[in-house]
Write a structure and sequence with these properties.
The protein is of the alpha+beta class. It contains 11 helices and 20 strands. Strands 1, 2, 8, 9, 10, 11, 19 and 20 form an 8-stranded mixed beta sheet that branches. Strands 6-5-14-15-16-13-17 form a 7-stranded mixed beta sheet. Strand 19 and strand 20 (287-289) form a beta hairpin. Helix 1 (14-25) runs parallel beside helix 4 (106-118) and helix 8 runs antiparallel to helix 9 (330-363). The longest helix has 34 residues, at 330-363. It is globular and about 65 Å long. The structure holds flavin-adenine dinucleotide.
Length: 412
């Protein structure tokens, strides 16, 4: 079966859902294909930064977002020893409407965006529909071939195809776009432990020891733990077994010793192969890559979702009018990259600097915390914690909803 749409978006993650919603609000016929049957994925990045919360407000979705289960992070505090800690980032210093990071399950955010999309006449979301191949004719991408869960296949032709299929993007690969990989010294492992009702935590507290870092992230009703160690040791960790892993966690964060037994096996510990890469060219004729498909981010700063969302806003702003007229030329696609490249490079450079100066010395066992000059600066000039908070929470060139996508809260 062959069908046609204005824009086919491959992948219903943060980039794809925001792009789909915005284009639909511009009156563009848009179809989002998502291979999974739902958005339920644990630890796929649950950080929603001040700029994204503000964007949701501009889209008239702020009230619905506020009703989602969430915890708020306003500080990043690094303990130096038993008695002292240093505040590395303080989001409460930001002059923004929402001076905190909202920790919201990604599936709740995606469901909210899907619900808002379905209110638009020209929006279609097809779950359980996997793009299998790009349709390429006469040197141009003209849509996708897909397969649904029941095995049926079809062709969806489109004026534009946007690859929002994440860091393992098939669409990107088929267009022969290859990202440049940057070396990364760490991997991350995510798991959850119970949180006691009396534990009032509003800060992200990394703790370091024995060549490992443990991040304790307070979530609504539980604790999310991130374990950071040298890249490539996942097989060793699994071979050592859960008891050794529990001991490591309890020795770095002693107050968790009373609950590490909740980890039944290493299956409860999800490995993230940390990647940091970037496409040089984000498009070919008829196809644009955005979000993780254009640039995979390190978890440092938890900025992946927010950059993906901002790419989507920029793409919708720059391309909606052209898509309504049915003509998107390669030079217009190049404009999306031109707009988003600098913020991407700056954030990735910051992450690489953090890898080199802070994380690598810890996982190599050379240090147990941030560099001494940074500790001294943050201790003696507390206002300096504004800078990391700004870079993480607001960043470079935050995008705002274009006029065609804005709604008052009651309209949405
Ligand atoms: C384990 C883990 C933890 C992370 N933690 C954080 C964090 O704390 N904070 C943060 O900001 N970022 C985090 N990230 C990164 C963050 O999740 C991504 O940067 C962000 O989700 C990118 O959004 P995206 O829409 O570009 O891609 P993705 O979120 O990867 O979405 C891609 C979507 O495309 C779908 N898809 C893939 N292939 C196809 C196909 N062929 N056909 C149809 N659909 C397809 C996938 O099912 C998926 O839904 C984490 C990533 C991982 C893997």
């Amino acid at each position: 079966m062959t069908e046609h749409t204005g824009c086919v978006v491959v992948g219903g993650g943060p980039a794809g859902m925001v792009l789909g919603l915005l284009l639909a609000r511009a009156g563009v016929e848009v179809t989002v294909l998502e291979k999974h049957g739902d958005f339920l994925r644990d630890f796929r990045g649950d950080t929603v930064h001040p700029t994204t919360i503000q964007l949701l407000d501009e889209l008239g979705l702020g009230e619905r977002f506020a009703k989602l289960p969430q915890s708020q992070l306003s500080e990043i505090i690094f303990p130096i020893d038993e008695h002292r800690s240093v505040r590395i980032g303080d989001l409460s210093r930001l002059k923004v409407r929402y001076p905190y990071i909202a920790m919201v399950p990604q599936w709740d955010l995606l469901n909210l965006l899907a619900e808002a999309g379905r209110e638009e006449a020209s929006f279609t979301l097809r779950m359980r529909t996997e793009m299998t191949e790009l349709i390429q004719e006469s040197g141009r991408v003209r849509g996708v071939r897909y397969r649904t869960e029941d095995g049926s296949t079809g062709e969806l032709r489109a004026d534009l195809t946007v690859a929002c299929d994440g860091r393992g993007s098939i669409a990107r690969q088929q267009a022969k776009l290859r990202p440049k990989e940057f070396p990364v010294p760490i991997d991350a492992w995510w798991f959850r432990l119970p949180r006691k009702p009396e534990e009032q935590l509003a800060a992200l507290t990394p703790r370091a020891g024995n060549s490992q870092v443990v991040l304790v992230i307070p979530r609504e009703g539980f604790l999310q733990l991130g374990y950071i160690a040298r890249k490539g040791i996942d097989p060793q960790l699994r071979a050592r077994g859960i008891e050794r892993f529990r001991q490591d966690i309890a020795s770095i964060v002693p107050w968790l010793a009373d609950r590490v037994d909740e980890l039944a096996s290493m299956d409860d510990v999800k490995h993230l192969d940390v990647r940091l890469n970037r496409l040089d060219r984000w498009h070919v004729d008829g196809l644009l890559c955005i979000g993780d498909a254009a640039h995979a981010m390190s978890p440092v700063g938890g900025v992946g979702i927010n950059l993906a969302v901002q790419d989507a806003v920029a793409a919708a702003t720059l391309l909606a009018e052209r898509l309504r007229r049915g003509t998107v030329t390669p030079d217009k696609l190049a404009k999306v990259r031109s707009r988003r490249l600098l913020p991407t490079i700056l954030v990735q450079s910051m992450q690489r600097l953090m890898h080199r100066a802070v994380v690598a010395p810890i996982v190599d066992g050379r240090r147990a915390g941030p560099p001494k000059p940074v500790q001294a600066l943050m201790e003696h000039v507390p206002q300096a914690s504004f800078v990391p908070a700004y870079l993480i929470g607001v960043g470079f060139r935050p995008e705002h909803a274009p006029a065609f996508a804005r709604r008052a809260a009651s309209e949405s």
